[in-house]
Write a structure and sequence with these properties.
Length: 304
């Protein structure tokens, strides 16, 4: 879902929609109950029928890691067309920060922290909680994953992206702010309780690797039920780790728009472990990466 091609070799991918049905202003509790009545939003991570065969895992990984969802918002054209089929993942440590109207310790912040611990264990990638700007010392790293949780009024405020991104007055910074501001404005009335977007390196650049994810944002409406909130956190962050696509054949998985599963499954965890295996690198295309993916999947299946 490429929503802007910048003049610099860093590219922003469009908002990833966590749930594609309800529109803003609907009764989110009724929406959640309707899913539950259909047997959707399962919270079991380990599925009784076992994990798919290795060949299925290999095919699912290619579908989810190399392709990108179509932009669900009205940006004029299908901007997923032309997006490079490369691996995207974080190389630098992820430093996340939760933006919430309530600055105290909350159940949302606790659930995010627990989930980030799980992602760190699965991927082996360094993930830490960052400090707000006002509390940072010169030695503290800036946050590169921002998780915003609040009511519609907060997102109206954030549509002026200068309130969210500080300091970068370059053309690149201006492009990022303008693009994200438009997306927040579109998402506020869109059929989704949450969304996420990321920036990755599209072309060769001296200080970065192609395919390297540099920054990401997650937006979650606070008026949704707790279960739907958990769905949003788990799917959006998993996708912003680099598994960017959904596919109807991915099962048992949250990378599937049928909403059968609410939480990251053990199978999803396997896909994340594959993506962050040291034998793979951001920027790899399918021809180079998939033989390696096959070896990793076979090792995981055999328990080696």
């Amino acid at each position: 879902m490429l929503f802007c091609r910048l003049t610099v070799p860093i590219c922003a991918l469009g908002l990833l929609v966590g749930c594609a049905e309800p529109s803003a202003g609907l009764n989110w509790y009724a929406v959640t109950e309707a899913h539950l009545q259909q047997g959707h939003l399962r919270t079991d991570r380990a599925v009784d029928e076992g994990l798919p065969l290795v060949e299925t895992t290999i095919a699912n990984f290619e579908r989810i890691a190399f392709d990108v969802e179509a932009d669900p918002f009205s940006t004029g054209t299908d901007q997923s067309v032309g997006t490079s089929r490369i691996l995207r993942r974080w190389e630098r440590p992820v430093v996340y920060h939760v933006v919430e109207l309530d600055r105290s310790e909350t159940s949302f912040k606790r659930s995010v922290a627990e989930y980030m611990d799980r992602i760190r264990e699965l991927t082996g990638h360094p993930i830490t909680l960052g400090k707000p700007t006002r509390d940072r010392t010169p030695d503290d790293p800036s946050s590169n994953l921002l998780i915003v949780y609040g009511p519609d009024e907060l997102f109206r405020f954030l549509s002026d992206i200068g309130n969210l991104i500080e300091g970068d007055e370059t053309r690149q910074g201006s492009s990022l702010r303008d693009g994200l501001s438009k997306k927040i404005g579109a998402w506020r009335t869109a059929p989704s309780p949450c969304a996420g977007t990321l920036w990755h390196v599209e072309n060769e650049r001296k200080e970065f690797n192609v395919g390297e994810i540099l920054a990401a944002f997650v937006f979650v409406r606070s008026e949704i039920p707790e279960l739907l909130r958990d769905v949003c956190v788990e799917e959006e962050i998993a996708q912003l780790m680099g598994l960017m696509n959904d596919h109807p054949k991915a099962r048992p998985s949250i990378f599937n728009d049928d909403q059968e599963f609410a939480l990251l499954t053990d199978y999803d965890g396997m896909l994340l472990r594959i993506l962050y295996d040291d034998r793979l690198s951001p920027g790899m295309g399918p021809e180079e990466a998939m033989p390696i993916v096959r070896r990793i999947a076979e090792e995981l299946a055999s328990g080696s």
